[in-house]
Specification:
Length: 139
């Protein structure tokens, strides 16, 4: 295993984002259509938060509804904005941060995704799943 491998080798660089003005229904749709668990929230080019599927589950019944069924969460989603639900105090890394450093951060924190930011621009996202897949590739 290479100790200095940068996170850019395992991060997702084609990042699905939400604008802070989007609604939570849009977020739920993106989570389900793309089978993802974390979406960076942006205002212009700046990342201002991270919304996780777990954040949605805390306020809704999103897990109980199939994508093609009637949405029972509409009323709940209209009560909150993305900015009220998302995590705001983000830790980010840059694309040259080593995979080992990312693993250390994620192992000590209570979240499972980190935005990758270079020169104040979101360039990727790395998750615990990315780390596990990297480790599996080593065997």
């Amino acid at each position: 295993m290479k100790k200095r491998t940068p996170v850019s080798k395992i991060m997702t660089s084609d990042v699905i984002t939400l604008n802070h003005t989007n609604g939570l229904e849009t977020a739920e749709k993106l989570f389900k259509e793309n089978n993802i668990r974390h979406i960076p929230v942006v205002s212009g080019d700046a990342i201002i938060g991270m919304l996780s599927y777990t954040d949605l589950l805390r306020i809704s019944f999103a897990d109980a509804v199939e994508i093609d069924e009637q949405d029972v969460d509409t009323v709940v989603y209209e009560m909150f904005t993305i900015e009220q639900v998302m995590a705001k105090n983000l830790i980010s890394v840059n694309s040259s941060t080593t995979i080992k450093e990312v693993a250390e951060i994620l192992s000590k924190k209570e979240f499972h995704a980190l935005p990758v930011v270079d020169n104040d621009k979101l360039v990727g996202i790395v998750t615990t799943t990315d780390l596990i897949n990297y480790l599996l590739d080593q065997f």
